[in-house]
Amino acid sequence: MDRVIMIKYGELTTKKGNRKFFVNTLYSNIKNKLKNLNVNIHKDISRMYIEFNDQELEEVLGIINNIFGIHEYVVAYKIASDVENIKEKVLAIMKTLSFKTFKIETKRSDKRFPIPSLDFSRQLGGLILKNIDGIKVDVHNPDILLNVEIREYYTYIYTNEYCGLGGYPNGTLGKGMLMLSGGIDSPVSGYLTLKRGVRLDCIYFEAIPHTSIEARNKVIALTKKLAQYTDSINLHVVPFTEIQEAIYREIEEDYCITIMRRMMYRITERLAKKNKCTIIANGESIGQVASQTLTSMAVINEVTNMPVIRPVACLDKLEIIDIAKKIDTYDISILPFEDCCTVFVPKHPVINPRLDLCIEYEKRFDYASMIDKAINETNTLVITDEKDKTFEDVL
Fold first, then answer.
1. What is the SS3 assignment for 205?
2. Opening angle at CA 8, ends 5 and 12, nearest 5
3. CB 3.0 to 4.6 Å from 81: which of 14, 51, 155, 221, for a disulfide?
């Protein structure tokens, strides 16, 4: 019996006039991710079907698990929609399984099929009871739920259903620039932004020798984890040493983090526009640190007109950690290598900064020319999930 992977769209079915665009993008994303495997992919407006070689099934399923836009998927037997043929196959499948209770659920989307869904479920159930000893029907909590989907050209029979990642296919809703540190929060924000169909570039600020090569490699590893959910991610590594040293030399200690974040936002906006991004995304969570009070975020955000998306803003730390563990970034994020935001943290950073003071303090040094220089000296690394690369590949 031929088997196929049948993909169910879920949220994509709500897109009405744009549904074809979302389905076609999902199709392209799946095709790209499976390009090195021996598969055939077919789609219609309601389902997508992947034909595969049995020896590659686990590898295909592992890849599908990391593709956004899939609500649910099943491994189904595909047969001709003939009444007797379906009965024969259902009985053959059930004879291979071990169970005491079962339920049959039929969905007849092709109304040309001569038997209504409920009636056909009863017929199939009776056939199974007659031919397999020691079993009974349980419509509430069966050991086996056998699904029979009668569609336009074929019927699909399956037992187990698997949850996909959901969300929108990557690339359907534009492109954003993720401010990626080496911490726990920003990779989670990247994952959640990708889930909403947004392609990502990432920006990382380093201050050699105050930050280390290990901190940089940590961010590369985090970007690689995020690249599993798309085809590739550009990681822009910004030399921030000169700006950071000027801040800590010229600015009152309690305002250093606020001014530093304002400089980062300015650079991020410039690089975002240069790389055709329409939003900035980051891992700010309300109240978690001094720069993430509402007052601080408002003062820092004042330097940009670009929309800033904060996916974890209303999550607590434990919720963020749960997601980080789920996407396998947590163990990387807790490696003890400090980034720009942690290496020079003052003892008592201001939690309610004044905008007028920030503007006055920033007049103390020529940050505009420093920003131009940092942008001109930024190195970009293309990260994929297919090939290991190091920072030196772009030098």
1. strand
2. 145
3. 155
**What pLDDT does residue 395 have?**
38
Question: Could you give phi then psi for residue 22, rounded to 5 degrees?
Answer: -65, -40
**CA–CA separation, 65 vs 296, rounded Å?**
38
| Domain boundaries of the chain, sorted by first residue | 3-163, 175-394
Distance CA 292, CA 257 (A): 11
Is residue 216 classed as helix, strand or coil in its secondary structure? helix
The strand pair at 72-80 and 154-158 is best described as antiparallel
pLDDT along the chain (395 residues), means of 10: 88 83 95 95 93 95 95 96 95 96 95 95 97 96 96 93 94 96 95 97 94 93 96 96 95 94 98 98 91 93 97 96 96 86 76 95 96 98 72 43
Check the CA dihedral 32-327-332-275 and report its sign.
positive
Answer for the pair 327, 221: CB distance below 8 angstroms, yes or no.
Answer: no
Helix (H) or strand (E) run with residue 297 in it = helix 294-301
Superfamily of domain 175-394: HUPs (3.40.50.620)
Give, for 57, the enclosing helix (H) or strand (E).
helix 57-64
